[in-house]
Design brief:
The protein has helices at residues 56-74, 106-113, 118-137, 190-193, 200-216, 226-234, 248-254, 265-278, 320-341, 346-350, 370-377, 480-490, 492-495, 556-569; strands at 2-3, 9-13, 17-25, 29-36, 41-48, 84-90, 93-99, 150-152, 159-161, 432-437, 441-446, 450-454, 457-461, 468-474, 500-509, 512-521, 531-540, 543-552, 571-572. The protein has 573 residues and is α+β, with helices and mostly antiparallel strands. The longest helix is centred in the middle third of the chain and has 22 residues, at 320-341. Residues 369-422 have a biased composition (Low complexity).
């Protein structure tokens, strides 16, 4: 390596990318200006920072998840999404090679020039909504939308969304494995603060906070402490600045705390186009938010004047059960805010708030039929090279001292028997429990999933068998995991009615040979309907392991999350 004695190091990675100047550094990665010496073009290269506090196994798992997410983003093609050209490893450290955008970030522009006019903010918002919609359609959640991750071309109108959490620890919450808060809580949706299951709606909240920041020059949730920010996000009255009035229906609609009532991306985009076309504050229609007079930012409202305004005109009140659920999420997040203000680790409260995997097994689920077992059994799972990073990914180990001891399962016929925690026992993310299976392995499964053994396979099923998580252990077979998956794919039409779009990819899992299979099929009955299956098969310690998840095609995002968590937490012994 050649160094200039300053902040710039000159070195070549993967035999072709010359790192020339450091452009920026975040909590998890460094971005370099570089030259692709093979093709003779300028690129940006993101380098994952090594964490010396992690064990070798933890570091390898983090690297594998990083590469999986990077490869997923590389499949996205949209004019307002950063182009990922390559994913390489050099010295066991991953690097992501991307387009080099000649210009600064939206955060830089706000810092240098202050608030941005409503028309320009609407233009930026339209571009970002297009990018977010494209990502969500491909099953990718950004999870870290903020002004620093939006690049503006210097000589043009280009708006590019970058940094899809590639260099962050994968997970549904913005928490590191050691419990410190990373990312930008000012742009994090309240449901993510609470550790609840999150989806595309969380990205839309972040976009709403971003638009508000661009219009006024400061995030509406900026406070002097982490506890203050958490409180502002999940509880305090959201007082939109005067500068946001031209785009108020969009800003307020996106900053709806209930994700089920939050303004959708398509309607937000329509409203922004309406403003650009007319220059007037747009009015929402039945599918969108319409502000009332009380919402206009003429003066700050006292807390007793605050009222709840539906984000979608004409929408029926949510069922009581959903209201209770929403309140529970916010109460949990409020406890986090209060504790964070008192100096308690946010990670201890969020990641392990449900007791570290000792939850109840939930409702019983009937056993799958023999034919269903055959269909789900050989697996199916998205390849690590194509499947977006999971929404939830547990930390390999937890530093929290607040986790409750695991509770034994009430019945071995309905769930796996829990054993005392050990250093090898995986941690369960919020909403999951650790299943110590009698078959000799442990993994995190969603709360409410019931254990159903079927011969050499073990299933963990949701109520009604909507989701089926299967595990199989066996002696190695000829051809290794790749051979096993290819043979299974050849038999796919015979074992899975309506089998189509099957794909097998050779990969590795924690450094061991692996193969991934993904396919869609018609299900075993008309009532069950079309399903999608994800499967990973790998060899480890002289045994072959197979983990798969099968789910309705309309629930592939949840299925992928369950699959990624199961694979990431799977341990033997």
């Amino acid at each position: 390596m050649v160094t200039d004695g300053g902040h710039n190091d000159v070195r070549v990675i993967a035999g072709r990318y010359r790192l020339e100047a450091r452009l920026g550094r975040g909590g998890m990665g460094v971005v370099w200006r570089a030259t692709d010496e093979l093709l003779g073009r300028r690129v940006a290269v993101k380098e994952l920072i090594q964490d010396d506090t992690l064990s070798a196994e933890e570091a390898r798992g983090r690297r594998d998840r990083t590469l999986r997410e990077a490869r997923a983003v590389a499949q996205l093609r949209h004019p307002h999404i950063i182009v990922v050209h390559d994913v390489v490893e050099d010295g066991e450290r991953p690097y992501i090679v991307m387009d080099l955008i000649d210009g600064g970030s939206l955060a830089d522009r706000i810092a240098e020039q202050g608030p941005i006019g409503a028309d320009e903010v609407a233009r930026i918002g339209i571009a970002l909504l297009g990018a977010v919609r494209a990502a969500h359609s491909a099953g990718v959640l950004h999870r870290d939308i903020k002004p620093a991750n939006v690049l503006l071309e210097r000589d043009g109108d280009g708006v590019v969304l970058t940094d899809f959490g590639i260099a962050q620890v994968a997970g549904a919450t913005t928490l590191t494995e050691t419990g410190s808060f990373v990312g930008s809580p000012e742009y994090t949706a309240p449901e993510r603060m609470s550790g609840a299951h999150t989806g595309p709606e969380s990205d839309l909240w972040s976009l709403g906070a971003l638009l508000c920041t661009a219009l006024s020059g400061e995030s509406p949730f900026r406070r002097d402490s982490l506890g203050g920010i958490l409180h502002a996000v999940v509880f305090a009255d959201i007082r939109t600045p005067t500068e946001a009035e031209p785009l108020l229906p969009v800003v307020r609609g996106l900053l709806e705390r209930d994700p089920e009532r939050r303004l959708g991306a398509a309607e937000a985009e329509r409203l922004l186009w309406a403003f650009r076309d007319t220059g007037r504050t747009p009015q929402a229609v039945a599918s969108g938010y319409t502000p009332t007079q009380e919402d206009l930012p003429t003066r700050p409202r006292r807390p007793e004047e605050a009222r709840s305004v539906p984000s979608r005109l004409g929408q029926e009140p949510p069922p009581a059960a959903r209201e209770r659920s929403t309140r529970g999420v916010l109460i949990a997040a409020l406890l986090v805010a209060a504790m964070a203000g008192a100096g308690v680790s946010a990670a201890a409260l969020l990641v392990n708030r449900d007791g570290g995997g000792g939850g109840s097994p939930g409702p019983s689920a009937s056993r799958e039929s023999v034919s269903a077992s055959a269909g789900a059994g050989t697996g199916a799972g998205p390849s690590a090279s194509t499947v977006p990073g999971s929404s939830v990914s547990p930390s390999p180990s937890s530093s929290s001292s607040l986790s409750a001891s695991p509770s034994p399962s009430p019945s071995s016929s309905s769930s796996a028997t829990a054993s005392p925690a050990s250093v090898d026992r995986p941690s369960a993310p919020s909403g999951y429990r650790v299943a110590d299976d009698p078959a000799g392995f442990s993994l995190a499964v969603p709360e409410g999933f019931t254990r159903v053994p079927q011969g050499e396979r073990v299933f963990y099923m949701s109520a009604g068998q909507t989701f089926r998580l299967g595990i199989k252990t066996a002696a190695p077979e000829s051809g290794g995991p790749l051979g096993v998956m290819r043979r299974a794919a050849e038999e796919g039409p015979d074992t899975n009615p309506g089998y189509h779009d099957g794909r097998v990819t050779e990969t590795t899992h924690a450094g061991d040979p692996a193969a991934l299979w993904e396919f869609t099929w018609d299900g075993f009955s008309a009532a069950e309907g079309p399903r999608h299956t994800y499967d990973l098969c790998w060899e480890q310690g002289g045994r072959m392991y197979d983990v798969w998840v099968s789910a309705p095609v309309g629930k592939v995002r949840e299925a992928r999350e369950y699959f990624d968590v199961a694979v990431d937490t799977f341990v033997t012994g």
